[in-house]
Specification:
heterodimer; A: 83 residues; 65% helix; elongated; B: 136 residues
Chain lengths: 83, 136
């Protein structure tokens, strides 16, 4: 079986993604049908952030991937041949 | 023409291909254009084309609802739900991927004994080869 750290990391990933999915689903799908003066609205950000936050997150992810690829490429540069 | 054998043959290769085979004598002199023989995956409708078609149909439906193109006067809450839909599907797909990766990491079948045995065998093999003269 997987090590304790593996299990912990895996379980935290699953938990985080479930949490994120539930929060985002309620935000996008349930809230428009709930009255504007209901107490539920104070737990959620204004509706524009349903687009802004994933957009920013996607940009950050792309930046990280690009930085990683760049770092690996820099590290694996072969020295130029001296003529 | 043996009718029963023909019918059996037709049912096995599909009606369109059977008709095309039978009608091909007409096209030899260019009289009738024979339709494209229907195979499992048609030569014209590739998988890519299928996906593009499906995505564009869904995209058109989303655009019609979001931008109110046909003035269908859909109630406001439903339009509020519809316009972030592509992003919502993307986020939910990301969450599903993350959950799958996490689950597979947590249930990965490590074989500790086999790993130790393998390491011991590697060391043994290295020693053996070194004795026989192979430089490491």
């Amino acid at each position: 079986m997987a090590t304790v750290t593996d299990k912990a990391v895996g379980a935290s990933l699953v938990g985080f993604s479930l949490l994120l999915f539930t929060y985002y689903s309620i935000w996008v799908i349930v809230l428009p049908f709930v009255d504007a003066d209901h107490v539920l609205h104070q737990y959620f950000l204004p509706r524009e952030y349903t687009v802004i936050l994933p957009g920013v997150a996607a940009l950050v992810v792309l930046l990280c991937i690009g930085a990683f690829v760049g770092a690996v490429m820099l590290k694996n540069r072969k020295p130029k041949k001296v003529d | 023409m043996n009718d029963i054998a023909d019918i059996r043959h037709a049912s096995s290769i599909g009606l369109t291909s059977y008709l095309c085979a039978k009608l091909s004598w007409l096209s030899k002199d260019g009289l009738i254009p024979v339709p494209v023989v229907h195979r499992e995956i048609s030569n014209i409708m590739t998988k890519l084309l299928e996906w593009v078609f499906g995505v564009s149909v869904l995209g058109a439906a989303w655009a019609f609802v979001t931008f109110d193109i046909l003035k269908m006067s859909i109630p406001r809450p439903y339009r509020e739900v519809a316009w972030p839909m592509p992003l919502y599907l993307l986020v939910s797909f990301g969450c599903y991927s993350l959950a799958t990766v996490g689950y597979r990491v947590a249930t990965f079948n490590d074989c500790d004994d086999a790993a130790k045995e393998l390491q011991a065998q590697i060391i043994e093999a290295r020693e053996d080869l070194r004795k026989k003269g192979l430089k490491f």
